[in-house]
Amino acid sequence: MATLLKLFPTCTWTGRLAHLSRKGWAQSRSGRLLPCFPASQRCASTTSYLTVEMDDNTGVAVVTMKSPPVNSLSLDFLTEFSISIEKLEMDRKCRGVILTSGLPKVFSAGLDIMEMYGKGPEHCAEFWRAVQEMWLKLYGSNMITIAAVNGSSPAGGCLMAMACDYRIMADNPKYSIGLNETLLGIVAPFWFKDTMMNTIGFRATELALQLGLLHNAPNALRVGLVDELVPEKEVLSAASTAISKWLAIPDHARQITKSMMRKPTIDRLLSHRDQDINNFVSFITKDSIQKSLQVYMERLKQRKT
Ligand SMILES: CC/C=C\C/C=C\C/C=C\C=C\CC(=O)SCCNC(=O)CCNC(=O)[C@H](O)C(C)(C)COP(=O)(O)OP(=O)(O)OC[C@H]1O[C@@H](n2cnc3c(N)ncnc32)[C@H](O)[C@@H]1OP(=O)(O)O
Questions:
Q1: pTM of the full predicted structure?
Q2: What is the DSSP string of 119-160?
Q3: What is the pLDDT of residues 169-187, one digit of tens each?
Q4: Domain annotation covers residue 31
Q5: Residues 174 and 218: beta-carbon distance below 8 Å
Q6: Who contacts 104 (Cβ-Cβ below 8 Å, separation ≥6)?
Q7: Nearest-angstrom CA–CA distance, 169 and 153
Q8: How many Å lie between the centroid of ligand 1 and the Cα of residue 296?
Q9: Pairing of strands 153-154, 176-178
Q10: Quick check: CB of 114 below 6 Å from ligand 1?
Q11: Which of 151, 211, 247, 301 has the smallest C-beta neighbourhood within 10 Å, fewest atoms?
Q12: β-sheet bridge partners, residue 144
């Protein structure tokens, strides 16, 4: 077991590993002793904010976000997230990802407002590049991506869900999803807008963005922001059922089709990436915008009292 931990320091093997005895080892051609796993094995790796559980049998990884209290997307969270998606992308065994939250009531509260409030231009630029990177990795992924939206998902959380191929949401009218940036006195960048337009069309996006609409679950289904509503306890199992349909499609055909649909939107950001960062930095560091963020955060905290 000690050797195993040396070989896979970041991995916790579950399933029948505990029963691995000497006969659970095989010798490689070079003579090295390697663990010999039974057919269905799950490998779970945990970082500070994420758990990634890979099932070698199905080729599906479940990525669970766990950054209390609300899975807000901080610079560190975003960095870890992009690295994890990149690793799965490079893992030939991984064909699909289910993205979900390990916290009650919230999928993700979107960008961490504290990363944009009272911070200097250099920090804001680094943060924005990480936001771009998260979206580029997810929207441009070759893998099948399913969002299991088991709680509220405003702003950047909605962007994350929209970047997936398919969205299943908990049928709870208390949960909401949408790009509510205007309510904070900020403006959704063009690639947030494009992602939403690609998902629900021009008119619904125009209304949603200007009004900063947060749709409850039934409305989200009606406008097409999510594809299915299921009882809260069934979100993950419904995502597994959904992904099996996608897995039945030959990867190369699905991937080329996905790229054909998404590449123009991705290329638009790639060719304006630095300009987009500069726009963000000069916008977010304005005194008036900083004031809006401060007022918004104060209101958020006052809701509790
Ligand atoms: C011209 C244009 C050029 C360039 C583009 C320019 C600008 C674009 C800029 C930015 C784009 C930003 C997109 C975003 O994602 S902004 C973030 C928007 N998010 C929200 O509005 C969500 C706010 N949160 C909520 O609505 C709720 O917290 C909730 C529904 C997610 C959960 O509700 P709960 O009742 O369960 O939890 P709370 O008590 O409200 O929260 C607990 C705790 O967490 C703090 N918090 C909540 N959300 C955030 C957040 N997004 N960032 C940081 N912190 C957050 C909240 O204040 C509480 O803290 P305390 O316990 O009181 O300390």
A1: 0.90
A2: --HHHHHHHHHHHHHHHHHHHT-SSEEEEEE-SBEETHHHHH
A3: 999 999 999 999 999 999 9
A4: no
A5: no
A6: 151
A7: 10
A8: 9
A9: parallel
A10: yes
A11: 301
A12: 96
- Is 189 within a domain? yes
**Calpha distance 281→126 (Å, rounded):** 10
Instruction: Quote ipTM for the complex.
Output: 0.97
User: Distance, CA 155 to ligand 1 centroid (Å)?
Assistant: 8
Q: Is 284 in the pocket of ligand 1 (CB under 6 A)?
A: yes
User: Residue by residue, what is the 3-state secondary structure of 208-233?
Assistant: HHHHCCCEEHHHHHHHCCCCEEECHH
Structure tokens at 86: 């990149």
Domain with residue 72: its CATH number is 3.90.226.10
What residues make up the domain containing 153? Answer: 41-302
Torsion angle of C-alpha atoms 146, 81, 220, 183, degrees rounded to 10? -170
DSSP 3-state of 248: coil
Number of domains in the chain: 1
Closest C-alpha among 136, 127, 118, 33 to residue 75 = 127
